[in-house]
Amino acid sequence: MDDLLAEFIAETREMLEASGSELVAWEADPTDRARIDTIFRFVHTVKGNCGFFDFPALEQLSHGAEDALAECRAGHREPDRALVDAVLAIIDRIGEMTDAMERGEALDESTDRDRALLAALATDGEVVEPAACMTQAEHSTSPSSFCQGSEEAGSRHTPAVQRSIRLPVELLDEVMKGVSDMVLARNDLARRLREAGEQPTIDGPFERLSTILADVRNSITRMRMQRLDHLFGSLPRLVRDLSNELGKQVLVDCEGGEVELDREMVDMVRDPLTHVIRNAIDHGIELPSERLEKGKREIGLLTFAARQSGNQIQLVISDDGKGLDTTRLGEKAVAAGVCGKQEFDAMSEDQRNQLIFAPGLSTADTVSAVSGRGVGMDVVRANIEKVGGSIGVTSTPGSGTVITLKLPLTLSIIAALTVRSGQETYAIPQSFVEEIVFGGGENVEFARAGSKTLVTFRGKRIPCVSLAAMLYGSEPETVNWREQTLVLIRLPGDRIFALAVDSVLDHEDVVVKPIAPVIMASKLYAGTTLLDDGRPMMLLDVASMATRSDFVSALGNGTSEPAESAIDEPKLAIPLMLFVAGDGSRRAIRLDLVRRIETVLLDAVSVVNGFAQVVVDGAILPLEGYDAALTSAEKCRLLRLSDGSAEVAYAVRQVVDTLDFTGTVMPVRSDPDLEGQGLIEGRPVGIVNGFSLFARYGSFGSNRPLICRIPENDEWARAILMPLLEQVGFSVATDRSDDIPDLAISIEGTEEEDVDACHRIRLRNAPGQTEHGEIFRYDREAILAALERVRQERAA
Amino acid sequence: MSDLLLVCRIAGQRIALPAMQVQSVIEIGQVTPIPGTPNWVRGLTTLRSQALTVIDCADAIGLTPTELSCDQRAAVMDIGGHPYALLLDEAEEVSEARSPVRNVPGGFGDDWARVALGMVETDGEPALLLDIEAIIDPERSVAA
Predict the structure, then answer these.
(1) What ranges do the domains of chain B cover?
(2) Which of A517, A524, A536 is nearest residue B51 as measured by Cβ atoms?
(3) Could you tell me the fold of the domain covering B4-143?
(4) What is the DSSP code string of A314-344?
(5) pTM score, two decimals?
(6) Is the ipTM value over 0.85, yes or no?
């Protein structure tokens, strides 16, 4: 309703502005027919629009003016100056009322003033409006005074009104395009500045420019956004019409109308959504009598819920009807040749539900006026996918169907994965990418079938195609699959294929621009986008590529399960992480132990008394596998291992891969640090012994927090040192409690307290050489290391 | 006919392009090839963060492909809403058409006939008026 009102206000104001010059011209020549017509149309439209709202005063005014003008047009009345004045006064009043509406003020009932305005329309005792008739005698003031009155009213305009203008969408697109180009130009400039080295006089303003540009881009994006209310607003009517036609009763419930979506996207979604609604009402929701029999409410419920998750909008349409009839769906599907009988029997319930998206299916027994013609959900799906979205269905027999639409926020910016093939970089829409697999991985096998290559991954055979072969026409035989990275692409309808590329580079949000028809004709590309350095990059059209190399259609679902015998009975696989240790040897560790992989600066590592330690995220961890060979690099890669309570960092040179190890682990007695050796990729690889590792370091999970005493009455100790201590798990005591603290910290210049403490750390105020093991009080790493030593010694 | 024409040379031939359609003549920088497209689609180049499709007209017509020189000229044209850069040997002048477009007695020769609208008199020598749409039409290119 608010939107309608806003539109009414905007329209009225627009017409007021447009008729401004007409009014002046009419005033100059009251008999000008063309002017009268224009003004008549204006008041007529206002009157008509008022019918939608409850504005009796406004309606009366416009009605009065319309009547008077209608008489002039019909020739029953000569337009004279008095009439012109009266009509102008009314139009001013309309403008005033519109302003009031916009400010959200309630419009009063017809005031005396309004009645007087109407009265002024009357001529020589001839009365137009009965209401005016009654008050005519009392208010025989000249009409011109009303004009002044309204001017006064105009001057007390409240400024806090949200102003709005209407713009053609093309203009917005134009601006949007301009800003996108500006971003690209900015990126180009940024690159050049980087190349030119640091230039403080330029860098500052450039930073500012970047920030402003980012803000502008944000606002522009918002300009293109429309609240879903707009879409939702039209639904009740649609549902009402459909349900009446089908003799059903349906209630509509919308939530999430405040979610915003690209205007263009809203338009693209409208048709598919209408189709889904038709299906829901026609097939889903039962007739009132049926519903009563089943113990449901007579009135069916159709719910629309929208919410934003990340850069996607999720729109869920659920009905409380009878759900999908998968048995009938199956019969139809088999009859239509979508799938075989056996195939259908083997399907899971969910797979059966998805059959509604198969082309040429309809479960309606009779073709009704609204649906059941067999063109439906497949078209819906195609349309949704065309805009980069996806659609899914779940159904509970007897209690309803839920259709979920997932839509990208905008059409022009898409999330893409950039890959390299040969010398060039290409982008693949992120929405298609299922998984990235390294061709050299242990769990990946390649097989050849005629001229086609299949990859076996997770027990599925997936058709595999090399991007280089597609693009450059190189022979698939020459492709070294093991050295390629496979991007598993999931096409609509759960068809999967693997695209082999030289390497995967990055995720990027790209602004996609259309490409020339001659490039489009290659059926390889969907668009182009510019890289940060200004070079163009092609966006791959993976769906067409799949069709072009026609394996997808040839293999039906695209994937096939290998026959039972094709793969050995899987042994209990051990998930391992393969890495290159500091000394250059290949090692593996059970994946369950690895919490995460970190990269730290070498500064964070300290070696004290042969104990290596590393500071990660403000925690100090014992470091295993640290080797002098690692110090050549600036940074160090760590595996953060955990046994559930304690953590150990394990320095590695390089993380190679993760794999499911199904071979045999041969025990190695000579090295207690190894659980054993396994044959991975034809080489023996030592598997790190988690048990001995944590047996060595695991004791710091001691539950008792160590107590540390810090100088009393020292602000620095309280404000700066204490948080640090607490952060690494010390309990700080400043008062003299009975417990003997584990550690006492003293600071240069404060009185050294006479406490029995097992350990003592002395801090000094200045950096530099230390004489008695004092630590500079801001040397965080050193303090942490010292604390860790105390902890280890206490634990021992 | 007093249309302005950009007179240039493609594969040694004096060619006229409607000047109103030519946005600018640029020096082409780096061209990113697009594999999988006809050879005469040289690739993409960028002009003020706009990607131009680089077309080698000589190659498209069936003549010896142009060799990209370091100061390669190209005419930027917007055709059917898409920006193109047509490789030129050189851009000579902008001239008024001194005659209506007409056919040359005996034809232009097979290669040119397909892409020429006719001959037009310009200041100095006459020039062939090119049918750009025909050159960049993917359908025709398949036939060629």
Answers:
(1) 4-143
(2) A536
(3) OB fold (Dihydrolipoamide Acetyltransferase, E2P) (2.40.50)
(4) EEEEEE-S----HHHHHHHHHHHTSS-HHHH
(5) 0.47
(6) no
